[in-house]
Amino acid sequence: MNDCSPTDETKCAELLEWIRDYGARRVNSLLIDTRRSIPPYVVLDFGNAGVLGLQVPKEWGGLGLSYKSTVPVLQQLAAMDIALATFVVVHNFLGIRPIMLSAPEPLRAKLLPDLARGRTLGAFAITEPGAGSNPAAIQGSAVKGADGRIRLNATKMWIGNASWAGVINVFARYTDEHGRPQGSCGAVVPIDSPGLSMGPELLTMGMRGMVQNMVRFDDVELHETHRLGAIGEGLAVAHATMMMTRLALGAISLGAIKRCLQLMTRYASRRTGICAGRLLDNPVSRWRISLALSRSLALEALIAHICDLLDRNEAVPEELLVVAKAFGTEYLWQTADWAIQMLGGRGYLESNVITQIMRDARVGRIFEGPTETLVHHIGSRLMLDDATLRTHLAEVLGAQDIAEQLSALRDALKERSSALTEIYPGRQARDYANSLLGQLVANGILYAVARKVLAAGSADWAVIWAKGAFEAAMADALNSMDDPKPVLSSDAILGLIEGLESDIGNIEQSLPAEEWRLDPYVRVDDVPSKILAW
Ligand SMILES: Cc1cc2nc3c(=O)[nH]c(=O)nc-3n(C[C@H](O)[C@H](O)[C@H](O)COP(=O)(O)OP(=O)(O)OC[C@H]3O[C@@H](n4cnc5c(N)ncnc54)[C@H](O)[C@@H]3O)c2cc1C
Asked: What is the β-pairing status of strands 141-144 and 167-175?
């Protein structure tokens, strides 16, 4: 059971006040974005305030916050600046969390105090050039030699905070000293380990304040004292870490949605002279704000429900965490787009904040599992008859009816998808049905949670929206089966797109940008006879 005492609540309230005050006086998000860097003083101040050790137990220098108190902090940070919030989440959830829960005790005691105060930053490396949305495809290898040493060879990509980090949690396939593959392993790798080389910073569309790098591991020795979880079970640690990070990304989405709603409503309530008068009185405006608001309430209810379970040390079905992330980030993306639209020309100006929110929000739909992958995942779990979710819906959320509807829909989709093999050959028909079912599961969960958590309050209207979304998803799924759209075959797509070359050519610019390489005459290890080649 996590600490949900009045002290926990007081600490959370104090931290929120600190963040609001600090954000107003000491943070300039446009500057952070333009300079592509969070200023060092912000990292240090966050560390001193406890923001970088939110859930680390007090004996290791953290705040030891419950989930219930952690979420408002993330929400507040994201409302202020999504990139800052993501930096905090990467450090707390991807960097610290696996160490806190799965590293040997002496390593925890050694690393956590500095991590919790932000004197060392943490990162998490699983993605590789050939393995992103499917982490199980990683090829990085940790091989135990005859000398008993484990050596890691891997190339990891898009690793958040990597070049700022003191330690990186890395995951790879494991082969024992007899050459037998034995699952996977995870390890905490100090940044100065021989064989570790940091790649360049990658220029991202948004979240420019924080860094993402490629990282190479060439024969990096992994020490038993630095392992994460049992040897052979590294991917289980990675999976658990990413699952909980999905909750944090849901909280980030919630904070940013609320900020968009504030900006939309501020503008719409002041802008007059539009069609029938004030923009806020326009039906389209009110419809969009109502929908975005109802989604944020349902998302908030889901997150609160998850936190309640976690703080009571009760099991949380994976589906709930997946929906918080996948639907949270989708809702945020659409709300940010509506916000820009509602503000008209002002929405498009960088100085009016929402463009940055939109750029920052975009990656949410891709990292920690793209929406499509996650939706497919929860659909296939129900298709395989995993009873966990249905039991949770019926027994914990009191939504036996929704559990039954999902089961009936699963059977219907299973049966009807076999008739679609002409359009979707091989396993495609099954994948298609899984994705449709995933959408239903997600909408069903949000409706069930909204009904239980919100109905007693004054937000019945939000429950009606959630019910409508579930019903629309049901109708859409069945309709997609009965009246499938003319989806082109892969070969037809390739042929048609090849034809576009005659319309627009094959565009690829070759004019170089700026020169940043050292001239051979200046380099330490080069001979002047080598002239810089383009
Ligand atoms: C800014 C940023 C920060 C990141 N930080 C980290 C980090 O700190 N650590 C780390 O390890 N990784 C990190 N990543 C990597 C990130 O998690 C991956 O980019 C992500 O998992 C997607 O993998 P991929 O890019 O290889 O896409 P791919 O695997 O090539 O997938 C491409 C697209 O295929 C579609 N797709 C996939 N599966 C399905 C499906 N079942 N049904 C339908 N469509 C599907 C989706 O639309 C998906 O976006 C980061 C990435 C970015 C951009």
From this structure: parallel
Q: Which residue reads 């300079």 in tokens?
A: 35
Q: Average pLDDT over the chain, rounded to whole?
A: 95
61 touches ligand 1 (CB under 6 Å): no
DSSP assignment, residue 296? H
Please state the atom number of ligand 1 nearest to the C-alpha of residue 162: 8
CA–CA separation, 312 and 302 (whole Å): 16
| 83 dihedral zone (left: phi>0; alpha: psi -120 to 50; beta) | alpha
CA of 473 to the centre of ligand 1 (A): 25
Nearest CA to ligand 1 atom 17: 367
Query: Which secondary structure element, helix H or strand E, spans residue 291, and what is its range?
Result: helix 283-311
Confirm or reject: Cβ of 118 under 6 Å from ligand 1.
Answer: no
**pTM score:** 0.96
**Ligand 1, atom 16: nearest CA belongs to which residue?**
367
Give the tens place of pLDDT for each residue, 466-505. Answer: 999 999 999 999 998 888 888 999 999 999 999 999 999 9
Over residues 379-415, the pLDDT tens digits come to 999 999 879 999 999 999 999 999 999 999 999 999 9
